[in-house]
Design goal:
The strands form 6 sheets. The protein has an 8-stranded antiparallel sheet. Strands 1, 10, 11, 12, 17 and 22 form a 6-stranded antiparallel sheet that branches. A two-stranded antiparallel ribbon has the order 2-3. It is elongated. The protein has 2 domains: 243 residues, no CATH class; 71 residues, no CATH class. 12% of the residues lie in helices and 40% in strands. The protein has 5 helices and 22 strands. A hairpin with a 4-residue loop joins β15 and β16. It is mostly beta strands and 346 residues long.
Length: 346
């Protein structure tokens, strides 16, 4: 245990910083539609008995090496032209829309109902998206949030047999840290645009890691493909097929999805100061030999010398909280002073 402690002044000896780390996450269509198994029964795609969404992994999901990538589902609002009580899983599809809307957008102020997704930043119920494909990205990939302005998704717009005979790419290039987004109860969201053809594909919620793509996102410039999924139109798939079939249709037309994630690292930096008249001795028993300091070579006229190898941070009760090791011992004697910088990341 130390004999003497040096007090750290929180006003002059402590600084805090924040660092944002970004990582590029590319998800190609081959991962989600055909790398493992035969589409649509890929070994890395998991369907559930409740049938409300589908999970996609980067490896066969029964393997211990598999990592969850994202979940897929669809939904539409009760005011949508697709809504019909006779539709397959009609209640579940409206419930999915309402759930995502409630969590990400909240309620309207007047009618006390969930807001509609919109292809703009106004939330005034204009340009509403009533039929939506949801991509719920894994927190493993998005980390703390998706970096604004880094999202790109390319979808196939041609027939089912060769969906990538035509493609459309949506990006959030207009979104920055200071503009081009809107803050809601679910965090900030930005618009996904095909700037070349002035088409809106949907929105992306950065902190939540959710993409809401309008059904017309697959239209491109030539209109919706009549053969959207295995001979069915898009409307037939969303109304007459199960949610998992709609997720299969989405995976079949996903060519590429890419974004940068963000990891926020907060740091506390402690400046540990050793003045010229302190820390020149060691408490190590081997520092002395027959009551004489070894490093003085038995010459009482020589100045004491110590070598700093470790810094300990203690609380007000002198309880050790953290230890920092130096890469090499630093010589300390009455002729020099040291300021050692200790950084704690959290």
């Amino acid at each position: 245990m130390p004999i003497n402690y040096e007090v750290i002044n929180p006003n002059t000896d402590v600084a805090t910083t924040k660092t944002l780390l970004h990582e590029v996450i590319p998800l190609t269509g081959t991962i989600v539609s055909g790398t493992y198994g035969t589409f649509p029964d890929d070994d890395n795609v998991k369907n559930y008995s409740h049938g409300m969404f589908q999970s996609v992994y980067d490896y066969p999901y029964l393997s211990s090496s598999a990592n969850h990538i994202f979940d897929l589902t669809i939904g539409y609002d009760e005011s949508s032209g697709f809504y019909n009580t006779s539709n397959t899983q009609n209640t579940k599809k409206t419930n999915m829309y309402n759930q995502f809307s409630q969590v990400l957008l909240g309620y309207t102020g007047s009618a006390n109902r969930v807001r509609l997704f919109e292809s703009d930043l106004t939330l005034n119920e204009d340009n509403s998206m009533k039929e939506v494909f949801f991509v719920n990205l894994s927190r493993l990939l998005t980390k703390d949030q998706i970096k604004k302005g880094s999202v790109s998704i390319t979808l196939g717009t041609a027939s089912y047999g060769s969906p990538f005979g035509g493609t459309v790419t949506y990006t959030d290039a207009n979104a920055t840290e200071n503009a081009g987004t809107l803050n809601t109860v679910g965090g900030d969201y930005g618009i996904l645009l095909d700037t070349a053809n002035n088409l809106t594909g949907g929105v992306v919620f950065y902190q939540a890691g959710v993409m809401a793509l309008t059904a017309s996102a697959f239209s491109g410039t030539a209109g919706l493909p009549a053969d959207f999924y295995d001979g069915l139109s898009l409307a037939d798939v969303m109304t007459g097929s199960a949610i998992t079939a709609s997720a299969d249709a989405f995976r079949h037309r996903l060519y590429n999805l890419q974004f940068n994630n963000t990891t926020e690292i907060n740091s506390a930096v402690y400046f540990c100061r050793a003045s010229h008249n302190k820390f020149n001795y060691s408490n190590n028993p081997t520092y002395l030999s027959s009551s004489a300091i070894r490093v003085k070579n038995l010459n009482r006229d020589n100045a004491p010398v110590s070598y700093i190898t470790t810094i300990g941070l203690y609380n007000s009760q002198n309880e050790l909280l953290a230890v920092a090791k130096l890469s090499e011992p630093l010589r300390k004697d009455p002729t020099n002073e040291l300021t050692l910088r200790v950084r704690l990341d959290y």
